[in-house]
Amino acid sequence: MPGVFSFPEAKQWAYAGTTLLAVGGDEQIRHAICASNRAVELYRAGPESDRSPGDLQAAHLDLATAYLAGGDVEGAGAKLSEVFGTEGYTASITIRLRNLAALLGSEPYRGAQSAVDLRAHIHEVTVRPALASNPTEPR
Q1: Could you identify which of 21, 36, 67, 131 might form a hypothetical disulfide with 75, taking C-beta atoms 3.0 to 4.6 angstroms apart as the criterion?
Q2: Which domain holds residue 97?
Q3: Which domain of life is it from (predicted)?
Protein backbone atom coordinates (compact mmCIF):
# COMPACT_ATOMS: atom_id res chain seq x y z
CA MET A 1 0.00 0.00 0.00
CA PRO A 2 1.29 3.48 -0.77
CA GLY A 3 1.67 6.39 1.63
CA VAL A 4 2.19 6.02 5.35
CA PHE A 5 1.57 2.28 5.14
CA SER A 6 4.81 1.90 3.21
CA PHE A 7 6.82 3.68 5.94
CA PRO A 8 9.16 1.63 8.12
CA GLU A 9 7.38 0.19 11.15
CA ALA A 10 9.18 2.53 13.55
CA LYS A 11 7.89 5.60 11.68
CA GLN A 12 4.36 4.17 11.70
CA TRP A 13 4.56 3.79 15.50
CA ALA A 14 5.94 7.33 15.85
CA TYR A 15 3.02 8.71 13.82
CA ALA A 16 0.57 6.62 15.87
CA GLY A 17 1.96 8.13 19.09
CA THR A 18 1.66 11.67 17.73
CA THR A 19 -1.89 11.03 16.53
CA LEU A 20 -3.02 9.51 19.82
CA LEU A 21 -1.65 12.51 21.70
CA ALA A 22 -3.53 14.85 19.38
CA VAL A 23 -6.77 12.96 20.04
CA GLY A 24 -6.18 13.32 23.78
CA GLY A 25 -7.83 11.70 26.76
CA ASP A 26 -6.34 9.42 29.40
CA GLU A 27 -6.73 6.19 27.46
CA GLN A 28 -5.28 7.64 24.26
CA ILE A 29 -2.35 9.09 26.19
CA ARG A 30 -1.58 5.65 27.64
CA HIS A 31 -1.70 4.20 24.12
CA ALA A 32 0.49 7.08 22.86
CA ILE A 33 3.12 6.16 25.46
CA CYS A 34 3.09 2.55 24.28
CA ALA A 35 3.27 3.56 20.60
CA SER A 36 6.06 6.09 21.15
CA ASN A 37 8.06 3.64 23.27
CA ARG A 38 7.68 1.06 20.50
CA ALA A 39 8.90 3.61 17.94
CA VAL A 40 11.98 4.39 20.04
CA GLU A 41 12.69 0.68 20.50
CA LEU A 42 12.38 -0.03 16.77
CA TYR A 43 14.49 2.98 15.75
CA ARG A 44 17.28 1.91 18.07
CA ALA A 45 17.22 -1.73 16.99
CA GLY A 46 16.31 -1.35 13.32
CA PRO A 47 18.50 -1.21 10.25
CA GLU A 48 20.48 1.97 9.68
CA SER A 49 18.49 2.71 6.51
CA ASP A 50 15.25 2.87 8.54
CA ARG A 51 16.60 5.23 11.20
CA SER A 52 15.47 8.82 11.28
CA PRO A 53 16.99 11.10 13.94
CA GLY A 54 14.09 13.55 13.58
CA ASP A 55 11.48 10.84 14.01
CA LEU A 56 13.34 9.49 17.03
CA GLN A 57 13.39 13.00 18.53
CA ALA A 58 9.67 13.33 17.78
CA ALA A 59 8.93 10.05 19.57
CA HIS A 60 10.86 11.26 22.63
CA LEU A 61 8.97 14.57 22.49
CA ASP A 62 5.68 12.67 22.33
CA LEU A 63 6.73 10.69 25.39
CA ALA A 64 7.66 13.90 27.22
CA THR A 65 4.30 15.44 26.30
CA ALA A 66 2.42 12.34 27.42
CA TYR A 67 4.21 12.25 30.77
CA LEU A 68 3.53 15.94 31.23
CA ALA A 69 -0.16 15.37 30.47
CA GLY A 70 -0.13 12.88 33.31
CA GLY A 71 1.45 15.45 35.64
CA ASP A 72 4.89 13.81 35.63
CA VAL A 73 7.25 16.74 35.03
CA GLU A 74 10.32 14.72 36.02
CA GLY A 75 9.37 11.92 33.60
CA ALA A 76 8.92 14.51 30.87
CA GLY A 77 12.35 15.89 31.69
CA ALA A 78 13.92 12.45 31.42
CA LYS A 79 12.46 12.00 27.93
CA LEU A 80 13.50 15.51 26.94
CA SER A 81 17.08 14.74 27.96
CA GLU A 82 17.13 12.28 25.05
CA VAL A 83 16.26 15.15 22.70
CA PHE A 84 18.61 17.63 24.36
CA GLY A 85 21.50 15.21 23.79
CA THR A 86 21.39 15.73 20.03
CA GLU A 87 23.37 18.36 18.19
CA GLY A 88 20.70 20.00 16.07
CA TYR A 89 16.99 20.07 15.39
CA THR A 90 14.84 20.37 12.33
CA ALA A 91 12.42 23.26 12.17
CA SER A 92 9.54 20.95 13.06
CA ILE A 93 11.32 19.62 16.17
CA THR A 94 12.13 23.19 17.23
CA ILE A 95 8.45 24.12 16.90
CA ARG A 96 7.42 21.08 18.92
CA LEU A 97 9.97 21.95 21.63
CA ARG A 98 8.63 25.50 21.81
CA ASN A 99 5.05 24.19 22.06
CA LEU A 100 6.14 21.97 24.93
CA ALA A 101 7.80 24.97 26.61
CA ALA A 102 4.51 26.87 26.34
CA LEU A 103 2.72 23.94 27.97
CA LEU A 104 5.29 23.92 30.78
CA GLY A 105 4.54 27.61 31.33
CA SER A 106 0.84 26.97 31.87
CA GLU A 107 -1.06 25.72 34.88
CA PRO A 108 -0.51 23.46 36.75
CA TYR A 109 3.22 23.37 35.88
CA ARG A 110 4.04 27.07 35.99
CA GLY A 111 5.16 27.16 39.63
CA ALA A 112 7.18 23.95 39.66
CA GLN A 113 10.92 24.55 39.65
CA SER A 114 11.50 21.49 37.44
CA ALA A 115 9.10 22.97 34.84
CA VAL A 116 10.86 26.35 35.02
CA ASP A 117 14.22 24.61 34.52
CA LEU A 118 12.93 22.60 31.55
CA ARG A 119 11.48 25.72 29.93
CA ALA A 120 14.80 27.52 30.33
CA HIS A 121 16.68 24.61 28.79
CA ILE A 122 14.21 24.41 25.88
CA HIS A 123 14.66 28.14 25.29
CA GLU A 124 18.43 27.74 25.39
CA VAL A 125 18.50 24.95 22.79
CA THR A 126 15.85 26.43 20.49
CA VAL A 127 17.60 29.78 20.02
CA ARG A 128 20.13 27.92 17.84
CA PRO A 129 19.23 27.95 14.15
CA ALA A 130 17.16 24.95 13.10
CA LEU A 131 18.43 22.50 10.52
CA ALA A 132 16.80 22.69 7.12
CA SER A 133 13.52 20.83 7.32
CA ASN A 134 13.56 17.38 5.82
CA PRO A 135 10.31 16.44 4.04
CA THR A 136 10.37 13.04 5.77
CA GLU A 137 10.46 14.57 9.26
CA PRO A 138 7.24 14.71 11.29
CA ARG A 139 5.62 18.09 11.87
Answers
A1: 67
A2: 3-126
A3: Bacteria
